[in-house]
Specification:
The protein is mainly α. It has one domain (2-81). It is built from 3 helices and no strands. It has helices at 2-18, 25-47, 56-81. Helix 1 runs parallel beside helix 3. It is elongated, with a radius of gyration of 15 Å.
């Protein structure tokens, strides 16, 4: 049940991330760095088959995804409040 919820949350976050383009260059770089972090953790999982890092790798991936969502929300806020 918990894994199903994690998968659904991941799909939702990925959908939101794909549908929004970050405008601020530093936030975009941070978003991309988080994506790279996710890739590194997944590669570690692939190369460490049989030892699942005690569930901490999945928690790290979720933290990176949460950070990406916060960066998107921060960029949206910045766009709305920027002086023009």
């Amino acid at each position: 049940m918990k894994k199903t919820a994690i998968v659904l949350a991941s799909v939702l976050l990925a959908t939101v991330a794909v549908s929004y383009e970050i405008h601020h260059p530093n936030l975009k770089d941070a978003y991309d760095a988080a994506e790279k972090g996710i890739e590194h953790v997944k590669h570690a999982q692939e190369h460490n088959k049989g030892i699942e890092f005690g569930g901490h790798a999945e928690k790290a991936i979720e933290a990176f995804k949460h950070a990406q969502q916060e960066l998107i929300e921060g960029d949206k806020y910045n766009d709305m409040h920027q002086k023009k």
